Amino acid sequence: MISLICSFAVLIIGYIFYGRFVANVVEPDDRITPAFAKEDGVDFVPMKTWKAYLVQLLNIAGTGPIFGALMGACFGPVVFLWIIFGAILGGGVHDFMTGMISERHDGASIAELTGIYLGPTVKWFMRFFSILLLLLTGTVFVNSPAALLSQLTPDFMDTKVWIVIILAYYVLATLLPIDKIIGRLYPIFGAVLIIMALGILGGTIFGGYTIPEISLKNLHPQGLPIWPYMFVTVACGAISGFHATQSPLIAKCITSEKEGRKIFYGAMISESVIALVWAAAGVAFYGATSGLSEAITDVGQSGVVYDISHGMLGSMGGILAIVGVVACPITSGDTAFRSARLILAEIIHLDQKRLKNRMIITLPLLGLGALLTQLDFNVLWRYFSWSNQTLAMIALWVATVYLIKTREHKITSLITAVPASFMSAVSLTYILMAQEGFGINKDIAYPIGIAFALLHFICYMLMEHKKAGEAQSR
Fold it and tell me: Rounded to 10 degrees, what is the CA torsion of 452, 455, 456, 460?
């Protein structure tokens, strides 16, 4: 219990002090934001700060901080440390920087920002890679709510029927102006997500459950190594590349740069609080990591969420669980396809103010997503998890180059270079070791991953040294 309370305190302190430090590095000012400069009534729409925060929270959250945290909790309470420090030093910085850099480039996507700061070759790779991730995200977040809804409705309303219904909703949410559906419904569902987490926290604390204290011991029943598996499994609660595709959506809607820390960094810390609640509840409810792991295998993540909610909060908890497990993934899936539409529009230079132009991109995109729903969910999730963290790595290097080019002091770029190097090691090591990757032994994969990260950090230091030399020669 003490560990959990201290974890919340560290997250809050991190937001107040480190979040302010990161914001001061960027130096937000009173410039006109794209929401006003490029207002089109579709994607560039001014949004109040509180609404932008809730929309950003639901965009990035979905079931990520719930499902990912529950699977990460199978490693034991060591997961608390990754959620805390991953969010403060990595995820919050990642989301804030991608949002603010996008805002300063007229709401450009992470793919376009990559081209500006890492070059045209990397830009084309990032375009393909980010669209692939968004398709995987949208597809992953169709299957889980459809499966749950099929269990709660008559037999003729099976999973396939619900997939069609959800995809039809995605068409509307992707096509319509951001303030028509997303701007109106997301604040409500964002509030539900927060209330759900507060209810589970209360049930965990006052329900007589034992919350294990933090330790570095690996308690995973299948013996999966903490490095790098835990750092990929818990993505949305600590750091997630998917967020780099979502922050530009809200960068098009913020009305002041000075609100960026509250919206981008704040939403990430809020998501981490939710992840901590569910990680603690998972182990506490089932009594051990073995029980939690067995439950995930037997009834899936959605079933575990329902069992915990109903067990701790009764019928009201069951209702909240259903709303959360259904609404949250759907509200991340629709913005995933919306982001993919905008990236494709940037590539082919097709103005998105006209409905016809939006349909030209949206309908084929959703059709491809429908085909992907036929693949095995577990396979999709594994590829989604790895591509998620790889995108985070690239986005952090984009932010690092941005800081090198725009800031005078070397220390400022370390706020992104250090987590970028860390995520470089995580991403490569995972794909080398994982079943869906190369299946290489850890004795080989570990050194390669570390060498990969060191190489990137050396390149970073050389860039900083070159910039310092140019400054002195002026």
Answer: 170
Angle at 48 between CA 86 and CA 349, to 5 degrees: 80
What is the rounded (10 degree) CA torsion for 428, 429, 435, 440?
A: 110
Non-local (6+) Cβ contacts of 312 within 8 A are: 199, 200, 203, 204, 207, 281, 285
**Range 437-443 contact pairs with CB under 8 angstroms and sequence separation of 24 or more:** 437/386, 442/225
Q: Which of 335, 337, 329, 343 is nearest to 366 (CA)?
A: 337
Give exposure, 81-109, as e/b (b: 16+ Cβ within 10 Å): bbbbbbbbbbbbbbbbbbbbbbbbbebbb
- The predicted model scores a pTM of 0.92
Q: Measuring CA to CA, which residue among 121, 308, 63 is closest to residue 204?
A: 308
- d(CA 53, CA 198) in angstroms, rounded, equals 18
Q: What is the dihedral of CA 155, 157, 160, 164, to 10 degrees?
A: 180
Q: How far is CA 397 from CA 99, 110, 341, 390, in A?
A: 14, 11, 24, 11
The series of mean pLDDT values per 10 residues for the chain, 474 residues long, is: 88 97 93 96 94 91 83 94 96 97 96 94 90 81 78 83 89 89 83 85 88 88 93 91 94 96 97 94 92 90 84 81 75 87 92 92 87 67 79 96 82 92 96 89 96 96 82 65
Calpha distance 312→205 (Å, rounded)? 10
Amino acid at 431: I
Q: What is the DSSP string of 384-443?
A: HHHHHHHHHHHHHHHHHHHHHHH-S-HHHHHHHHHHHHHHHHHHHHHHHHSTTTT---HH
Closest alpha carbon to 82 in 198, 228, 221, 184: 228
Is the torsion defined by CA of 211, 73, 55, 153 positive or negative? negative
